[in-house]
Amino acid sequence: MSNQVPDTRPLAERMRPQAIDDFIGQAHLLGPGKILRQLLKSNYLPSLLLWGPPGTGKTTLARILAQSTGACFIFFSAVLGGVKEIRQIVDEAKETLQSGSRTILFVDEIHRFNKSQQDAFLPHVESGLLTLIGATTENPSFHVVAPLLSRCRVITLNPLTAEDLHNILNRTLEDQVNGLGFDTSILDQDAADYLVAMADGDARKLLTSLEIAISLAETKNEEPLSISLTEVKESLQRNSLRYDSGGEEHFNLISALHKSLRDSDPDGALYWLGRMLQAGEEPLYIARRLIRFASEDIGNAEPQALTVALNARESYHILGSPEGELALAQAVTYLATAPKSNAIYAGYNKVIKDIKKTGSLPVPMHIRNAPTRLMKTLGYGQNYQYAHDDDSALVDQEHLPEELLGSRYYEPTNRGYESIIKDRLTKWRQILARRYRKQEK
After folding, report:
1. CA angle 6, 8, 10 (to 5 degrees)
2. pLDDT tens digits, residue range 245-273?
3. Which CATH architecture has domain 26-156?
4. Fold adopted by 250-337
5. What strand order describes the sheet that includes 48-51?
6. pTM of the model
7. Are 232 and 251 a contacting pair, CB within 8 Å?
8. I need a labelling partner for 71 at 20 to 30 A (CA). Which of 47, 144, 334, 375 fits?
């Protein structure tokens, strides 16, 4: 009888890469010449914030980076720890430094720390006692205090591609040590494609679903072992209702909701909202998509749309389910019945395109600030016209770099409040044109 203790860790944990060459995905960070690859070569590790969706490799990358420097690695969960634990870590780091080693502190879900907890890191990150690696699924600009954010390099991780997930799937099936030790042929191609689609860029979700599917298949005691699409769907339904009882993919549902809103159909929008919530979709994810929709597809045609979407998110955050779901339903019907415009979305895309094409064009001298005598001597702010000195608060001066003079980015539509904006801009331009003609005479 073997005395070997079975490995009871979840499959996703067993398959966690231990070396950078085993890591799959994030080529924009780990490819030749890319930032993390360069950091690994240099043996220098600054404080980092790893920002990306779940299951994209944030924790794994932190461990690999720490291992490459030979530093002491401490894992800390923002959910379970507080300021008291931080002080203990600082004391340990001081002892470690005396022995000649640095300490890398990995803080999972750092966005869950409040301001005072984040401030507790500041002096120790600044002094170099701690090298901080924070992981977050939320935008660091909104959830990490500015002083700490300024001391960290933000690294953005992308959802894993379908190709990445297929590679992870095949490696896991074939791995004889940490994986399942099967031939990849046991999994039908349709079943593999479905697992990848349902994982939605999340490797942990992929491997958890695979582990359940394998377990269910083994209970049937069939030889040879084979897993079909039907069995995979069965395992996913038993695992979670997140994908909804009808088997619709997550991204199909959010697409249906988004397009129903864009097409001004409140009935369709309400239905797809209900389908997603009943399936177990994260309500705050839906709220974030509604906020994006308010700017992308409505914009200034109904300026209150963004406020309604933000309030719906805050209301759900306070009330939770099921009460808070009504706030999302209210927002959905408001957004669906609001006038639509993508003028802001289109205009901003034009701006980004021009910036990429023209680079860092200098600010025109007349609209530069001139707080010092030297700057005034150099011409900063010279010939600037103060709009409030004019009876109509209109001045005839350019605000774009010379290379972009005459460019129009924001083109308001005739829909909703944006029609008022369009009329206002047209009248202002006519007034300025008449003034220019008078000056020419």
Report:
1. 145
2. 334 457 788 889 999 999 999 999 999 99
3. 3-Layer(aba) Sandwich (3.40)
4. Zinc Finger, Delta Prime; domain 3 (1.20.272)
5. 72-77, 103-108, 130-136, 48-51, 153-156
6. 0.56
7. no
8. 144
